[in-house]
User: Which sequence fits this backbone?
């Protein structure tokens, strides 16, 4: 746009790929990497409502997973330049990046890789209670099928594509059935892809604290003003995720109401808002 003086984000070198799956302390890891001085550490929570990010991630899913009906076909994998379209200003990535783990290990050959493996039972329970229920069900279906198309949003559809493609599933039911196989495949692929470069991969365990992470990255353990080591970040990601989803849904309904007011007096949008609020037990 003429007269737009907004500067593009600075180009940075990707230094760390934290490829532990979503719901393995990725938010805490993103905060830890930020504390260690890495710039613009990417986590999916920070991009809720950023339609351009999710459009790129949806396209990345189309380029990566053959099981998707929208698959671009062999030979059309995402290029380094395409990945840089979303992460070119980041020195580290976490969370949703893990879905494309093996591809990113190849795309950023100089980046170090951190892999957090959580107990499958605890992990799958958390995924079902937070992520899957936020993407499938009466309320999520209403937003994905009605609200988002009216607003031109692709956040929900992109998230669904990414999960289904990653799990080689065609629907929510098959996603649940394939979850363990996808979990196992993820860890084996990351380890196999990193095996060609000894010392590139850190198998990190939740609760290990700063020492192994800092040794691997060549950073000093961060200390506070009292000279004592800072506590390792421990963020409540599940609570933050739920709140982000609620905030985004409210924002969408407000925007939909504003868009529809000139045409139908807001009746449809208000009705949709009333239905959603009542389903949440607010009225």
Assistant:
């Amino acid at each position: 746009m003429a007269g737009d003086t907004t500067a593009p984000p600075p180009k940075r070198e990707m230094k760390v790929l934290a490829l532990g799956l979503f719901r393995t302390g990725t938010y805490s890891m993103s905060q830890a990497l930020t504390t260690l001085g890495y710039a613009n550490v990417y986590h999916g929570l920070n991009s809720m409502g950023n339609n351009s990010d999710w459009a790129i991630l949806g396209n990345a899913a189309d380029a990566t997973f053959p099981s998707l009906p929208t698959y671009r076909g062999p030979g059309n994998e995402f290029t380094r330049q395409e990945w840089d379209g979303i992460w070119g200003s980041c020195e580290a990535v976490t969370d949703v990046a893990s879905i494309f783990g093996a591809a990113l290990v190849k795309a950023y050959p100089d980046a170090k890789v951190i892999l957090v493996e959580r107990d499958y039972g605890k992990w799958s329970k958390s995924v079902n209670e937070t992520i899957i229920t936020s993407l499938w069900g009466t309320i999520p279906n209403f937003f994905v099928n009605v609200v988002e198309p009216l607003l031109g949003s692709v956040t929900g559809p992109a998230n669904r594509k990414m999960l289904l493609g990653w799990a080689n599933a065609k629907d929510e039911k098959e996603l649940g059935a394939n979850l363990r196989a996808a979990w196992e495949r993820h860890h084996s692929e990351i380890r196999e892809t990193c095996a060609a470069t000894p010392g590139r991969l850190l198998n990190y365990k939740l609760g290990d604290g700063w020492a192994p992470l800092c040794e691997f990255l060549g950073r000093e353990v961060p200390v506070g003003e009292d000279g004592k080591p800072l506590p390792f970040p421990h963020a409540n990601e599940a609570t933050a995720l739920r709140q982000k989803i609620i905030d985004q849904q409210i924002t969408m309904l407000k925007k939909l109401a504003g868009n529809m007011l000139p045409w139908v007096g807001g009746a449809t949008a208000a009705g949709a808002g009333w239905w959603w609020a009542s389903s949440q037990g607010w009225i």
